Structures are given as structure tokens and as C-alpha cells.
Please model this.
Amino acid sequence: MFASEVVLKSARYGKDKIRLFRVKREGSFHYVVEYNVTVLLEGDIDVAYTKADNGVVVATDSIKNITYYLAKLSDHILIPERFALHLGTHILSRYAHIHKAFITIEQLRWSRITVSGEQKAHSHSFYRDGDDKRIVEAVVEKGDSKKLTGTVSAGISDLLVLKSTGSAFEGYIQDEYTTLVEVPERIFSTSIDLTYTFSPVSIATPTDLEFLDFDVPQNLAFDSQGGVKGKGEGGVWDALGVAERARTATLDVFATDESASVQVGRAH
Model:
């Protein structure tokens, strides 16, 4: 095969394991988030592979710096779904030859400490109340118009659960290889992965000179916890509400379902 017959069909590159911690202060009341971020890019970058031309490459160190810079400025940093869309939108708007951005965010848990004798959670003290993580995968893509399209999947990983009864394992194949004894009642523990996908959303290209603008639709009503009420409920802009409801439903079903046969360690 001659070299001229070799065609690069697709290419994707980026930066993995960008560790990010942000404190957002509103007076004496603070919010914290800790993320592990991955950014992968696609576009007109084939010459970097076929002709060793790095003129089309946004360096992976630059990708890391962009992530940190936007994390400092973005109003959406506390909600990983929105921050992922904001980050992808900024990169695609700034670099005309990049057509698709894949943003993955792993959020570690930090919950407020409630001090003994006080009803309200502490304003600036937190603890890690579990090893499960919130996972967000966003794809931002250029279309034929000036609009971008964002698609987000989110969920939970490594949610470790246990029930001391309410689970059984019976009725399986019995033959000369079987030594396992049927049990009508058993202790059951598993690690749950949960994934759900939002409907795609249209995103306007930023019009400011630095391509930093990113606006959430103005016709949405939010509750005190950041969830959407009424129109837009259950969509990507309701990410906080959906995440809380999904976690609650998962734990409720695990606790109350009488499991006759659960053999998989991960549920989607």
C-alpha cells in the first residue's frame, strides 16, 4: 500500500485528569465543588497526524488552562452539566477549526457540616459523606448555522449499597456442576452506576469578544435548591433537581424492592 492511499478517517485528542477545586463565596456563605475534568476535541486537525503540522493543535496544556480560567469566571461552575456545556461552547467558539468537544466531569461529594445544637448547616465547613461520584458527559457540536448543539448524559457511579435481607437467589440451573445452595433470604450488596440522557439543547454562539458568554434560558422558574419548576422540569437546565430525584429514587427502589434475582453489579 502506497502512503497516498492511507486516509485518516477521524482523530480526537485532549487533556485527561484536570483536577479542579473551586470555592464560590457569597458573603460569609461559601460553596465548594471538586471536579476531575476530561476535555477531548475533534475538528480539522488531520494535518497534525499526516504532515506533522502542529499549527492546528490547541495544546493539551492550553486546554487545562482554559478549564481553570473558565472555572474561575463561569457563573455555572457549581452545576457540572452547565459548566460542561459552557466549557465546550467556549472552546468551539474560540477555535473555528474545532467542531466537536467532549467534556467529562466527575464530581466528588462535599456536604455541609451541621454543628451540634444548630439547625442550619455550617456556612463554610464540609465533609465527604460518600465515595460515590456524580458523572457528567457533555458533547457540544457545531451545526450548519451559528447555533451549537449540546447533548448531556449524567448520573451516579460507585454508589455502594447494602441490604441485610429482602434478597434471594433460587431457581437457577441445577446440574452436576452445581454446588451453590439456594437461599430464600440473603445479605445483598452492590455498587450502582446510574446513567440518564437529557434531550439535546440548542446553544447560541457567544457574541462577546472573548467568547465567554453562556446564558441559561430566562423563562425558567427555579426553586430554592436550584431545580426547575414547571416548564423545563426534567431537562438539562433542571440538572440539579434531576440528580437529586434520581439518587433518591435509586435508593428507595433498592431499599423496598424484594429482589428475587439480582446478579449484575452495575445498573444503567
User: Anything to note?
Assistant: Residues 264-268 have pLDDT under 50 and may be disordered. The two ends are 44 Å apart (CA to CA).
